[in-house]
Write the structure tokens for this entry.
Amino acid sequence: MSTPTPVLEAHGLVKRYGHVTAMDRCDFELRPGEILAVIGDNGAGKSTLIKALSGAIIPDEGTIRLDGQEVRFHGPLDARRHGIETVYQDLAVAPALTIAENLFLGRELLRAGTLGKVVRLLAKKQMLQEARRQMDELRIGIRSMRQAVETLSGGQRQGVAVARSAAFAQHVVIMDEPTAALGVKESRMVLDLILRIRERGLPVILISHNMPHVFEVSDRIHIQRLGRRAALVATKSISMPDAVAIMTGAARGDLLPSTTS
Amino acid sequence: MNENPVTLAEEAGPLETGPSLVARVFGVSAVGPFVALLLVGAFFALKSDRFLTGSNLSLVLQQTIEVGTLAIGQTLIILTAGIDLSCGAVMAFGSIVMTKLAVDNGVPPILAIALGIVACGGFGLLNGMLVTSIKLPAFIVTLGTLNIAFALTHIYSSEATITGVPGEMTFFGDTFKLGGTAITYATVVMLALFFVVWFVLTQSPVGRHVYALGNNPEAVRLAGVHVRRLLVGVYVTAGLIYGIAAFLLVARTQVGDPAAGQTDNLDSITAVVLGGTSLFGGRGNVIGTLVGAVIVSIIRNGLTLLGVDSIYQVLITGILVILAVTADQLTRRRSR
């Protein structure tokens, strides 16, 4: 075993909704410090897989391991407590709140001592500084942390959501279609952000429909088809047309040199 | 890609040049209501020399007490993108509970007051449970509880005004002198309550969650906040505030009146909207609501001083609400 212990690993995940099997003995592997793209056609079970990994659904069968330890997530909060942060496609930010408030939503910092413990007073200055530090570190150029998020462009908003997950993630950042709603220039910014998160040593799971984006930033690609993993390949060793062929079922994934072993 | 950094920082200037101090303290939407207040005040000051006297302004504040206090709870609920039509009826119910217990059942006044406030909190709990568990629109739920509270008030009081209220219950209706002007303690209680709620909304995590809830409930849920508990908490808090309004009403009028508060629900919504809080939730602030409530009182008071028929007061308040909601809608559209 020359490969390091995967950060996040799943075996034989099954999820059924009535007669529909959304996930059919699906495997998954994420290695330390990599950007793993998850691609698949609509209905391939991509989002079911991601929901299982981020705790949003509980799989009927199968195991999930985090750093080699088996885990069972009882909800998104539980996964988050285990250091798995998810950036959602629909920009889960509160538009009228400021950037700093959004970064710390649900995890607000309180003042030290009685003011914090009893009065539950917000440590606003500390949150502003910390928000500024995070945004600077990820090189998201936003003037004021006191700006309401609704005054930002789509890319900047996504930047806030990404910064929030990067700030709190201990193990894994999951990004669900982070560039889907963005223009060319803004997508560029978000892709750069993803690379910077990897520079920090955090592995990223990138769910995307955008093949050029996937091929540009990912280290490996997980191709999901018919509820299971059709292939797991190093991005360098596959062409875009081949990846699409496996995704759509025009080619068989098991004919490729596997990177799982 | 570092040669060509696309950080969207082109427009970035000096750090932390955020909104102005006033806008930061009260939120941008509070500036409009203050301007409106000044305009309305100036208008009546020019038209009537009795308007700008200490005693008249104290009277304006006194006339603001019930609607103003109710509007605090109403603001909380509207911030979560809800609405509460039951507030006035719940207040009337609370006032009957406290006066009836004290007068007819000989319950000690302090306990009677507490039970009345708890009764209002109970209505808040009912509203909150119905809104969160059956997921009915707040408009429908509170329309129902409005009628329930209204009916219970009349059944329990046998439609009779309760008099002979003990002195302990009406103490806050008494006045003290401030620079020669008599001010009721109830006014001070109302203002203090505005301050406390403003403080919690702006300075505590739960306050920020209330705003976020009106903005994007899904974001709040994903951020790990227990949304249902938060929402029920908001309705219960609003109910307890209506209970305090009931207590101040009894203190000011010295009776338990089953017919009280019948138009206060719409008046409180008017105050909230005039105060710049968005009916769509998530935006606004409670200090604006105070300004809104005072504007409503000033218009009533000023038009009375000018001898204008009271039906015109209703007409003008109606027009103002439409203007305020239009302004809200336009700001929202711009921020999209």
The mean pLDDT of chain A is 88. The beta strands of chain A are 8-17, 20-30, 35-40, 61-66, 69-71, 84-87, 172-176, 204-207, 220-225, 228-234. Residues 50 and 220 of chain A are 16 Å apart (CA to CA). Residues 97-147 of chain A form one domain.
